[in-house]
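Figure caption, in words: inputs first, then the predicted bound structure.
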Amino acid sequence: MIKRIAIFASGSGSNAENIIRYFGHNPKIIFTKIYCNKKGAGVLERAERLKVETTVFSKSEFHDGTILSDLEQNQTDLIILAGFLWLIPQEIIRAFAGRIINIHPSLLPKYGGKGMYGMHVHEAVIENKETESGITIHLVDEEYDRGEVLFQAKTAVEEKDTPEILAQKIHELEYRFFPEVIENFLKNKFRA
Ligand code: GAR
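Bound structure (glycinamide ribonucleotide present):
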């Protein structure tokens, strides 16, 4: 059975692109759309290049059911949050319970929660002189960064690392593991 995946992204979209390319030749996967909350975000340009449809939406459209109906109309099976920074409304969580996957650039529960995203995470990790950091791929529920953990991977943080260097190491882990974790999830959940 073909599975239909929607991606939500707010920024550059390098993970979104990596995921779409990974499944590029898989006839059983369709990327319905990239949903983005920010006009001018890098992910929109990537989507155009990758020939994936996009929808840019406002906070009110996110909360008044517009986006939920759009997801349903597009017969979405799975939602992937790839650098998406808004909390998901309850109605969407309920409609897609157990079918929303997020990636977070730290070893949750450390460095999660409101305001902890992207470079803020890496700055805090360096500031606190942590010796390791990593990625967490998890199911999404009503709270930021709290749902069931599907996968974690670690990387060492060296004394000389800057937040930018750490961001690069984390991105490498994300590119290497996020598509595989999605693939395994699809196999287990949908036998896809
Ligand atoms: C990624 O590192 C992702 O883990 C992080 O945003 C970055 C997006 O990069 N997500 C969060 O911080 C979510 N709380 P990208 O736009 O290049 O894929």
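The helical segments are 14-22, 42-50, 59-63, 66-73, 90-95, 118-127, 163-190.
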